[in-house]
Amino acid sequence: MRNLIGLIIILLFANKTYAQNGCIPKLSEDSFTQELKKIKSYDFDNAKIKAIEVIITKCINSFQLKLLLEELSFEQDKLDIIKKAYFKVSDPPNFKIIKSILDFEESKKVVDKLMT
User: Which of 1, 9, 38, 88 has the most CB atoms around it within 10 Å of its CB?
Assistant: First the structure.
């Protein structure tokens, strides 16, 4: 009985750790690669943004998000996606890697603020 209660507590804690993202099941690597290839084929950022917004409703990790954001030209567009995506990524502790694609310190501070 104690083992069962312990298992339930572990499962609840593990689920709560990433409950902010509602991230089950994860997007497969093949599916992500196909989606990224489509996004790369778009000529305009508006089309890329719309496609990225659809993808972030699925379960992606911070590195995948970084790859998606690298396809955008403008910092403000990246920030808008970052703000939406933080609560949806499967690995919030790794979200700090997103800062590497940002050019401005103010933008990096936005990421830091999200993570606190």
Answer: 88
